[in-house]
Amino acid sequence: MRKLTILFLTVLIFSGMFYSCQTAETIQQDAYYVNGRDLYINHCQNCHGTKGEGLGELIPPLTDSVFMKTNKQKLACYIKNGVSEKLTVHGKVYEGKMEPLNLATIDLAQVIVYITNGFGHQQGMYTTEQVTTDLGNCK
Amino acid sequence: MNNPLHFFSALLLGTVLLTASCKEERKLPIYGVRDTKEVAKADGFTVDTIYQTIPDFKFLNQDSVMITNDQFKDKIYVADFFFTSCTSICPIMHKNMKTLFQDFKSNPDVMFLSHTIDFKYDKPSVLKKYAQKLDVYDPKWQFVYGPKDSIYTIAEKSYLVAVQVDSNDREGYVHQGFLVLIDKDRRIRGAYDGTNPEQVEQLRKDIPVLLDEYKK
């Protein structure tokens, strides 16, 4: 019984430490991630798949970490304005068109947090301010 | 029967045998409009049911070859309507259809037939490229192109799938995502929502059931 109490207390202390370590930013990031997942399911999943696996050579997967990292500033433009240029993902060239999707700034931020932290990526927070800046630099 | 375990196993065995013998062979329904016809026989008349069938068709396939019903003679096939630039339901439909294609790849009695409803853009060369990129470029899966009239008529009248040009829609076309199962006698034996994983699984189970009908 005593052992059990000690174990319980230890777990309590550790989880308490873990929660107090979470900053306001990571809590916000988690909220974005969860909302972003809903947006992804509604707007993106049909083509890009439940695991971001894409479809053959028609629709690029979202699992290429190098691509996602180097093109992070372009993601908002891609989603909002669509894509008609050729993209190389996982070494394969995709030349299909993606239709523009008119999402609000906050929705763009949330869905981008989801796709850059899901599918094996870990790129952290992406704010609405960053969306506005990146959209200003769209080609 | 003094041992309860013996009694229990006997009961279990009995139940299993009974249910197994009761199990009727599943048969797929036949869809579409029916008609009757009187047929002359030696001793009078008998009434036959005439089922709705897929009429003769002639379309250009992904290799720009004119194909007809002959291509599907003695085959059962899964038909659908799509267009290559569609981003709404087509990708998921064809993703699911591709898994069926892979499962029945080695079965010579099963084929696939996708009709494009984009008569302006989806010429055979576009269809070929699409098939290659989907990694299903194979005579077993035919992608066909035809004039608007014949494709839209066969969709609505024969396969019972609604398709239409819609200038209000961003992509210009609206259509239903059904995968229609056709038997060797050109009759409709099932329609499954190609975007719904459960219905696609049902189709996966129904194809062997339909094939069994033709086994003698």
UniProtKB/TrEMBL annotation, chain B:
UniProt keyword annotations, A-Z: Copper, Disulfide bond, Metal-binding
Any one Gene Ontology molecular-function term assigned to this protein's record: metal ion binding
CDD domains xref list: SCO
PANTHER family: ELECTRON TRANSPORT PROTIN SCO1/SENC FAMILY MEMBER (PTHR12151), LINALOOL DEHYDRATASE_ISOMERASE DOMAIN-CONTAINING PROTEIN (PTHR12151:SF25)
Pfam families documented for this protein: SCO1-SenC
Name of the protein this chain belongs to: Electron transporter
Metal-binding listed as a keyword: yes
Residues engaged in binding Cu cation: C86, C90, H175
Superkingdom, taxonomy of origin: Bacteria
Organism: Pedobacter antarcticus 4BY
InterPro entries the UniProt entry points to: SCO1/SenC, Thioredoxin-like_sf, Thioredoxin_domain
Family, per entry: Belongs to the SCO1/2 family.
